[in-house]
Amino acid sequence: MANALSTAPDGFRGDFLTDARVCAARADRIRSRFPSTSKNTAGYALNEYLRTRDVLDLVIGSEGTLGFVTRAELALDERPAASGVILVAIDDLAALGDAVGAMRTHEPVAIELVEGTLLRLGADRVPDRLRDVEATLLASFEGPDEEAVRHVMDEEIRTLPAKCRFAETAVTPADRAALWRIRKAASPTLAALPDSRRSLQFIEDGCVPVEALGEYVLGVREAATTAGIDIVAFGHAGDEHLHVNALVDTAQPDFPQKLVQLFDRVTELVIRLGGTPTGEHGDGRLRASLTQRLYGHELTMLFRAVKTAFDPKGIFNPGVILAEGTPDPANHLKVGPRAATIPPDVAKALRHVERTGGWERSKIELSKGMQ
Fold this sequence. Notes:
It contains 15 helices and seven strands. By secondary structure, it is of the alpha+beta class. A hairpin with a 4-residue loop joins strand 6 (230-236) and strand 7. The longest helix has 20 residues, at 291-310.
């Protein structure tokens, strides 16, 4: 990382972004264009750099486009003395933002959502009482002892909106695990789909202000219906961040075009709601084309100046975060007529990883087949 940073000491000297004063002069513009969401990994973190004047805030989340991180130090929190979980069933998605907002006032460590379509898709993994609700929320609370956790959860239930059908609590390890299995069933359910109906992470990283969560899910559903594609939603509602997976019929030759239509409509929706299409997974190449739509021309040029200052030869992950030309989002699909051709044994191994959740397996080993 030292070599990469040496190309841009003390605020990008050597490019038109000549020093930190150039950023400071645009501070109001930068702050106004960055989404005020809990998460945002779109572009480079100029807003954080303005706050800290530390180039590390630009390197973090830069997806290998500015240099290499060779070492990191982590600090661990102690395991809590006691914890509990609340499950809330919601009948009206319009109440989703109010429900999450009420939960956040009691400072849970996590609030996770599983939307009703996914609950029904994974019916064999979901309790009967949840199969006809529009969404469930699972909130985790921690405290110094079980009594304190129970008190917080009781207060929480009293503040929930009336449109929540029912709420359940769990404090024992077995009961907590039983409730969390509802959320953990999401990925296995999607991975178990047949090859003719694949779950694709194409519009899966949106993050919007908490009050807009219900409008966002309803808007994505409407956009998906218009495009003729099924979707499911789940994820980190407490962070205002949801994963929306598209379920496509790979036998339909026009499914890539339908996905691009959905991609455009959902991008328009999330930006209109004051959110970001890139909550935590990064822009990559798929969402690199959205940078200018989200931030505008001026900030996009600042991003390009950051890139040039760190990587003047443009050799670090070209096309990631900042698009080259006008890329077609459908070029980045893992299935379909434009998907990259890979050896059959590698394809089989990748599908096995997807179905079993074995993401820790080295991708280099996959070239050796299923050994």
